[in-house]
Amino acid sequence: MITINVKKKTNANGRLVIDVNTQLIEKDVDVVLVIQEKEPKPNSKSSQKKGNDKFNFSELYGKLEWKGNALAEQRKIRAEWK
Length: 82
Description:
- By secondary structure, the protein is mostly loops.
- Helix content is 15%, strand content 0%.
- The chain contains one helix and no strands.
């Protein structure tokens, strides 16, 4: 079995045209086609979700730097809860 992933865009009429080269010459094959619509990439303003959904911090990864002792700051905040 050969798995081939192809990313294509449908045309204005909704047609999807796929032309795939294989190493199978004059062979009978079964083809399984799964079409999954791609979700649009969120822009920075819409990446913040409302309600109970979690915030996506992936756009901030590697951009924030912490100066200081994180453990000491946590203890300071937790001391305020008492």
